[in-house]
Amino acid sequence: MKGLTEEMCNKLHKFVVLKGEPFELLNRLKTEGVFAGHAEGENTIKEMELLFTYLKAMGVLDKISFDFSLARGLDYYTGVIYEAVLTDTNRVGSISGGGRYDGLIGMFSGK
Asked: Is residue 72 a contact partner of residue 97, using CB atoms and an 8 Å limit?
């Protein structure tokens, strides 16, 4: 799975069911060393921490729920994926989704 060891996958598996406050879950990932020794995983932790810091500075962190189970099902995503959900109406549901896909154009252009 994306270069992760079996041990890392086993550690990560218990997080897939969790949702909640971004910094709380991020700190659990760091404390339990889920990606310890995996350069890409450790870099992802740093990027998530930076993202959450920006969201906090913008005053919207309380609107964010960190959900490890979210999957868009497309192989071209290379980073964070997101989903926007309406919760303040009688209808609750996804209104937007997307993510980072650095290599998408290269997949089609060969460059």
From this structure: yes
Unique residue bearing structure tokens 């460059």:
111
Q: What is the pLDDT of residue 11?
A: 73
Average pLDDT, the chain: 79
DSSP state letters, 24-35? HHHHHHHHTTTT
Collapsing DSSP states into helix, strand and coil, what is residue 105?
Answer: helix
Distance CA 14, CA 25 (A): 12
d(CA 21, CA 26): 9
pTM equals: 0.66
Is the separation of the CB atoms in 45 and 32 below 8 Å?
A: no
- For the chain, residues with pLDDT lower than 70 are 1-2, 70-77, 79
Tell me phi and psi for residue 86, to 5 degrees.
-80, 130
